[in-house]
UniProtKB/TrEMBL annotation:
InterPro entries: Nitroreductase-like (IPR000415), TM1586_NiRdase (IPR029478). Residues 19-185, 259-330 form the Putative nitroreductase TM1586 domain. The keyword Iron does not apply. Residues 230-251 have a biased composition (Basic and acidic residues). Belongs to the nitroreductase family. It comes from Anaeramoeba flamelloides. The lineage of its organism: Eukaryota, Metamonada, Anaeramoebidae, Anaeramoeba. This is Nad(P)h nitroreductase ydgi-related.
Length: 365
């Protein structure tokens, strides 16, 4: 699924969506989840996805109750439980080391953010779920596949009883929700530890491409224009079955309204844009709120290197995939495009502190 289409699907600023998202562990009954939202989410999730480094990821939604060690609303009555989405990766593919987890983090977070855009609650569960149950939902071949995480989904329950409130406070203390590390510990320029300056990033990278150009690149606008032309030529002709089908595929005029809306929402200062893009990474979810991603902006290469502060927890690879998605999605929103690469060790000359591991690079177009 194209990233851009996710934005266009709901017409929401992804940075707002990212800021609004937080892990939801208490859910209302299933009846409060609008059927249309459930279908949209299930349609996006179910099937095979491919991460930026080529790993195949299978996802499936389930109506079954999942074992989550009581971290998530669980009730004897099925309809009082949330629904779930389960995902697994192929582990026997020829991808660079640990990129299966990075790809999984990146792809699964698309579902999380899409749910967020719909106002539907989710919570990454990388540890507190019963793996056997998840394996059976996806019919996982444990020799070649692995479930890294699942998520419940449903409407958040905000009016909690006393026991639920206690539990929530416990979770909040445990993972320090609503807190994040300051920029100077996470985002750097040229040298690890050298705090990022957003006006320098803005000056180096210049104006983003216009959103209209961006939409063309992704075939959103080009298709529309071509079909308009064709439509004119065929005005007098009788409509054939084929043309009818084309007509159905035609993106609507709505796209133009959306472009205007996007243009209007752009802040004036480029440095503000970059501050916002980094803010959206900062508020990404991470296992035990570790925020173990680090980003170094490389001025001469016009590139952003994504690094892992410590690989002591195997979740760090999922976390970095999530951070990559937040970054790319926010860049796209403002018309900045680029590509992901994993550099070979021999191509990196930087001196990184002990324990810090290189993950991936986003080269700006
Ligand atoms: C890879 C990953 C695994 C996670 N695993 C769990 C989990 O097993 N149980 C849980 O309650 N929360 C889990 N979380 C949610 C984090 O605790 C949460 O994202 C973090 O504390 C930040 O809070 P926020 O999501 O509300 O912003 C996980 C998050 C990520 C990204």
């Amino acid at each position: 699924m194209e990233l851009l289409k996710i934005i266009l699907l709901e017409g929401e600023n992804p940075m707002k969506i990212q800021a609004q998202r937080s892990s939801v562990r208490f859910y209302q009954g299933r009846s409060t989840l609008p059927i249309v939202d459930r279908h949209k989410l299930v349609k996006l999730a179910n099937g095979i996805h491919k991460g930026p480094f080529g790993t195949k990821i299978r996802m499936k939604s389930t109506e079954k109750k999942m074992g989550t060690f009581n971290y998530i609303t669980t009730d004897k009555k099925l309809e009082k439980n949330p629904y779930y989405i389960v995902g697994c990766v192929s582990t026997n593919v020829d991808v660079p080391e640990k990129t299966d987890r990075i790809d999984f983090g990146y792809e699964f977070e698309k579902i999380i953010l899409y749910a967020s855009a719909l106002g539907v609650g989710t919570c990454w569960l990388g540890g507190t779920f019963l793996e056997n149950e998840a394996n059976s939902i996806l019919d996982v071949n444990t020799d070649t596949e692995k479930v890294y995480a699942i998520t419940p989904f449903g409407m958040e329950k905000t009016e909690l009883d006393i026991n639920e409130r206690k539990k929530k406070n416990g979770f909040t203390r445990m993972v320090m929700r609503n807190t994040r590390k300051p920029n100077n510990l996470m985002f750097f320029i040229d040298v690890y530890g050298n705090e990022i300056q957003f006006d320098t990033v803005a000056q180096t990278l210049g104006e983003p491409k216009s959103l209209i150009g961006l939409l063309k690149k992704h075939g959103q606008l080009g298709e529309y224009e071509e079909e308009q032309e064709e439509g004119k030529k065929n005005e007098e002709k009788e409509e054939t079955k084929n043309e009818k089908q084309n007509q159905e595929k035609k993106p609507q005029q709505l796209d133009y309204d959306l472009i205007r809306k996007l243009e209007k929402e752009k802040p004036q200062e480029l440095s503000e844009i970059w501050e916002g893009i980094f803010e959206s990474v900062k508020w990404a979810p991470s296992a035990v709120n570790e925020q173990d991603w680090r980003i170094v902006f490389d001025q001469s290469e016009r590139a952003f290197h994504f690094l892992i502060e410590s690989t002591r927890s195997h979740y760090c690879f999922l976390n970095i995939g999530i951070a990559m998605l937040h970054f790319e999605l926010s860049c796209l929103w403002y018309g900045y495009t680029g590509r992901w690469e994993k550099l070979k060790k021999s191509n990196t000359s930087w001196k990184l502190p002990k324990d810090v591991t290189y993950s991936s690079t986003f080269y700006m177009d």
